Amino acid sequence: MHQPVVFIDGDQGTTGLQIHARLNGRSDLRLLTLPAAERKDPQRRAEAINSADVAILCLPDEAAREAAATIVNPNVRVIDASSAHRTTPGWVYGLPELNDEQAQRIAQAKRVSNPGCYPTGAIALLQPLVQAGLVPTDYPLTINAVSGYSGGGRAAVERHEAAGVQAAHSLLVYGLNLDHKHVPEIQQHAGLAQRPVFVPSYGSYRQGIVLTIALQERLLPAGVTAERLQACLEQHYHGARHVQVAALEQGGSTTQLDPQALNDSNDLRLALFANQGQVLLTAVFDNLGKGASGAAVQNLDLMLATLS
Fold first, then answer.
1. What positions carry a catalytic annotation?
2. Do 254 and 181 sit in the same domain of this protein?
3. Tens digit of pLDDT for each residue in 58-67?
4. Same domain, residue pair 99 and 138
């Protein structure tokens, strides 16, 4: 029986290391790795990619485009963990829970673009509601999100964790030009007609995301309530292995959200909070799990299941 070969291009970065750790020791596949001296050799990397059954690109955007362009073997399948191809025609968006058909699309695809960390939470909340007509496509959305500093990549991790170095900040808000690269991805895959305002930030903890989107019932279609929004999400994610929908909160029994609650898992927890005509959509997940490496492995497993 053929043992599928998986090559991680960029396995020394934050996401690549996490994927490698999740796959290391598995007997159903073979991890192809390059010696340290060859990792930056374009020819050796191209050879490795073209010899793999599945190549996972954990590279900066431009390098990911260049790596994808080196593929000449028609049998090579690709998961791109960068943001280079998330809105590119011909690439399948790697969020299996997006709709009833998406997992099968991923399983059959030659090219899969892994979702961004923040977009995973935003799209998971918005797409079912927009698709059902409960949230208008032109609703004036503002998305706020806080991630652990590992979301900034290896350089950010080193800044915070180097011996003798104090935390660079307790909270850093960025993306103030309102043109973050995740915005087109969120708009396209959530089905929005207008760009949402996206306000990301990094906290002084290593990993984990809490993302929130506020809605006003008076701006929603007539008859849309928190209960209908809740029911829509529950129905959409019924039976989903990695997405939890908490009970609707209207009495204040939950007063805070911990962004680190699902760290080291591939789970995503959605929860709605409602009071006096206002609704808060929330998502908690690990930016290195469901927001990156965990999602890549989930997509890889779907693709491996179709290899003979």
1. 117
2. yes
3. 999 999 999 9
4. no
